[in-house]
Write a structure and sequence with these properties.
It is built from 3 helices and 20 strands. By secondary structure, the chain is mainly beta. A hairpin with a 2-residue loop joins strand 11 and strand 12.
């Protein structure tokens, strides 16, 4: 879930996705999410906190905000006292120990400052069963206009007023696909109304001390080979609810109207040294 690589794509398609989601309602997602009713959640507050201060960059968390379209977010003051224009984003974000997609990218000219809002993916929060946001972990990244790295993986943590009440577990019912090497993968459900077509929802738990990357290979749906979109990066001792995206046009070309049977194999690697942790044999399952 390296958000730095997908920021532009997210910002381009998100508005269209939100309009589609509002038009179709939330009933299609009810079977794959686990969060409690919003009426039982509380609003998280924060103290003004300096998250990062290095190489002339200072990032201060000012307050939590909620937008009717973009969802929950954090207002940030980003200051650039260096003599170089900088592009600043997040390498990764973790909320309540779950990997969450962020929507944050800003450019700050040399000697200037900017008020920004870092938004948390509403669908990721919902799929992870998070109503009460208690702890947010960041890894910040900065580059100059020549895309030369200034710093990366700069860690910061922010606790909210709900730290003692934060949601840290989710419903993990489903087909257990992998449980070795202190890594667990569960096939939870199929969302046949995903923005791109359909999506297979996975719960992934990384109980190792290393960051891992999980990929799927040789995937077929109802006996037909497909080319899914999936790569999930999970930090050490963290969790993720992620999706394997199946494109609508490919399903239509194979006359697949309903996803009944899935076969795939997983490739799991150490994200730091690229050593292969495991390459599984093909496995079949159904989430019906």
């Amino acid at each position: 879930m390296k958000t730095k690589l997908s920021t532009l794509l997210i910002l381009t398609v998100l508005s269209a996705f939100l309009l589609m989601a509002m038009a179709s309602g939330s009933s299609d997602e009810s079977s794959i999410t686990n969060s409690s009713s919003n009426s039982s959640s509380e609003k998280a507050d924060i103290q003004e906190t300096i998250l990062l201060e290095r190489d002339g960059v200072k990032i201060t968390a000012k307050e939590m905000v909620t937008d009717i379209i973009w969802g929950d977010g954090i207002k940030l003051l980003v200051e650039n006292s260096s003599d170089t224009d900088l592009n600043i984003s997040c390498d990764s974000m973790i909320v309540n120990d779950f990997m969450i997609t962020d929507m944050f990218y800003c450019t700050v000219a040399a000697g200037k400052k900017s008020n920004e809002t870092l938004y948390l993916s509403s669908s990721d929060l919902k799929n992870s069963g998070i109503d009460n946001i208690g702890k947010i972990e960041f890894e910040f990244y900065a580059s100059n206009n020549n895309y030369e790295r200034i710093f990366e993986n700069e860690y910061a943590v922010l606790e909210t007023s709900l730290i003692s009440k934060m949601d840290t577990s989710t419903n993990v019912e489903g087909a257990e696909l992998y449980n070795q090497n202190n890594i667990k993968i569960i096939g939870k459900a199929v969302n046949e109304h995903d923005f791109w077509g359909s999506a297979v929802v996975l719960y992934i738990e990384n109980n190792t001390d290393d960051e891992i990357s999980v990929y799927c290979d040789n995937m077929s749906v109802n006996g037909f080979m497909v080319s899914p979109l999936f790569a999930s990066n999970i930090k050490p001792n963290k969790k993720a609810v992620d999706t394997i995206t199946l494109f609508e046009n490919e399903l239509e070309e194979n006359d697949i109207e309903s996803i009944e049977d899935i076969e795939l194999s997983f490739r799991i690697i150490n994200s730091d040294n690229y050593n292969i942790i495991d390459e599984t044999a093909p496995m079949s399952f159904s989430t019906k």
